[in-house]
């Protein structure tokens, strides 16, 4: 049986030019990145494109390709053009097969932006809000603020005539000690078209930063405040985190995993070609995102074999919570137990509610109230 693919995340560079304190890749449990080639090779790019071509003949539904890292722009402009041009040969329909780059924005320059425009590749920039929010965790390797360098990159992006397509928005990790409204208004003011927020990685064994315990509401309060401001904003910029919840409540489907009851097929390709499960699982234990027998894209049919495998199907099932508390929970169909990595504990594996359970309840019930759904 063929299990569908929704997102293929390609790690084109395994190092980063920043040293963010919350990074799941470099500060997480899995330190495998040290053994990965710094950049993806031409051989691996060719194998990926060949495999993608095969997938499109088996799967009618489109899927997204995301260039990720480390910092993907460490790939350099020549190699970036190589991978994007080859990807667009096998994926010419850019609406059915969106290609995106998730970058810290520092290496954005006119040449790179032009290449992205030419190959219809959108750019999302990681920025946690105003300078004082961004300066909590996003440091350079010598411990300095990365803020102005990121803003310089965004300025170049919004100066491009194709900016409406190119700059897809910003991705901010929540810093619960900051003002969500100040961050949101700032990101709007710099031209972010979509403001996505992410809960910090953490679980029952490794508590998220600034979360005191299972009952505490630091993140829920922050999100609740942002939600109220967002719904009262007469000129809002979409916040996917909330829009996905609203879609589910209104009977639709979210765009991303971690909410609701839908399964998302996500695979990751490492710079050496290894095929992995969703790499956010690395915030749990070393090896959490490995498939058995370490499949590699450079082996003929490896991607198709994984998509047909039981292991891939089982890996998607982890998205659904299994603990009694979630199963009995009246908002499970909205919350979906949150991201699997936040349900993990050393003792009970993924058989727990999310460490963010009370936070999820706080902003979801607030949303239901604001939507006057009881
Ligand atoms: S709110 Fe808590 S109990 Fe309910 S589904 Fe989410 S994590 Fe599970």
Inertia-based shape: globular
Work out the strand percent. Answer: 5-15%
Q: Which structural class should the secondary elements be placed in?
A: alpha/beta
Q: Quick one: biggest sheet?
A: 8 strands, mixed
Please give the number of β-strands. 8
Mean pLDDT: 94
Secondary structure tally, helices: 14
Bound molecules: iron/sulfur cluster
Radius of gyration: 20 Å
Protein name: Radical SAM core domain-containing protein
Cofactor: [4Fe-4S] cluster
GO molecular function: 4 iron, 4 sulfur cluster binding; metal ion binding; oxidoreductase activity
InterPro entries: Aldolase_TIM, MoaA_NifB_PqqE_Fe-S-bd_CS, rSAM, rSAM_sf, Sulphatase_maturase_rSAM
How are the SSEs ordered, and which strands pair?
Elements: E1 7-11, H1 42-58, E2 64-68, H2 77-90, E3 99-103, H3 110-118, E4 121-126, H4 131-134, H5 147-158, H6 163-166, E5 167-173, H7 180-189, E6 195-198, H8 218-231, H9 240-249, E7 266-269, E8 275-276, H10 302-307, H11 310-317, H12 324-328, H13 332-335, H14 357-370
Parallel strand pairs: 1-2, 1-7, 2-3, 3-4, 4-5, 5-6
Antiparallel strand pairs: 7-8
The structure holds iron/sulfur cluster (SF4).
GO molecular function: 4 iron, 4 sulfur cluster binding; metal ion binding; oxidoreductase activity
Protein name: Radical SAM core domain-containing protein
Domain Radical SAM core: 2-253
What tags apply to this protein structure?
374 residues, alpha/beta, TIM Barrel, 8-stranded mixed beta sheet, 14 helices, binds iron/sulfur cluster, oxidoreductase activity, iron-sulfur, iron, Sulphatase_maturase_rSAM, 4 iron, 4 sulfur cluster binding
């Amino acid at each position: 049986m063929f299990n569908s693919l929704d997102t293929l995340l390609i790690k084109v560079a395994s190092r980063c030019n920043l040293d963010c304190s919350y990074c799941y890749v470099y500060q997480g449990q899995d330190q495998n990145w040290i053994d990965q080639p710094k950049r993806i090779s031409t051989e691996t790019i060719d194998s990926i494109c060949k495999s993608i071509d095969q997938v499109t003949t088996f799967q009618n539904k489109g899927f997204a390709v995301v260039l990720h890292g480390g910092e993907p722009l460490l790939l350099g402009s020549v190699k970036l053009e190589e991978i994007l041009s080859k990807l667009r040969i096998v994926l010419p329909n850019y609406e059915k097969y969106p290609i995106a780059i998730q970058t810290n924005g520092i290496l954005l320059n006119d040449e790179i932006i032009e290449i992205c425009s030419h190959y219809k590749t959108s750019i999302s920039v990681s920025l946690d809000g105003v300078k004082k929010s961004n300066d909590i965790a996003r440091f350079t390797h010598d411990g300095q603020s990365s803020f102005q360098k990121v803003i310089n990159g965004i300025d170049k992006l919004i100066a491009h005539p194709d900016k409406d397509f190119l700059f897809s928005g910003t991705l901010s990790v929540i810093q619960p000690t900051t003002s969500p409204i100040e961050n949101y208004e700032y990101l709007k003011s710099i031209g972010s078209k979509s403001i996505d927020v992410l809960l910090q990685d953490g679980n029952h064994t490794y508590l998220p930063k600034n979360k005191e315990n299972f009952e505490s509401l630091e993140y829920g309060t922050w999100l609740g405040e942002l939600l109220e401001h967002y719904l009262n904003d007469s000129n809002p910029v979409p916040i996917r985190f909330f829009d996905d919840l609203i879609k589910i409540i209104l009977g639709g489907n979210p765009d991303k995993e971690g909410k609701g009851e839908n399964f998302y097929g996500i695979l990751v390709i490492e710079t050496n070609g290894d095929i992995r499960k969703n790499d956010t699982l690395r915030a749990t234990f070393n090896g959490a995102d490995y498939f058995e027998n370490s499949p590699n894209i450079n082996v003929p049919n490896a991607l198709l074999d994984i998509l047909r495998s039981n292991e891939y199907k089982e890996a998607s099932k982890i998205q659904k919570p299994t603990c009694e508390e979630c199963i009995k929970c009246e908002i499970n169909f909205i919350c979906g137990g949150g991201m699997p990595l936040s349900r993990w504990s050393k003792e009970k594996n993924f058989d727990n509610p999310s460490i963010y359970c009370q936070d999820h309840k706080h902003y979801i019930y607030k949303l239901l109230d604001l939507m006057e759904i009881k």
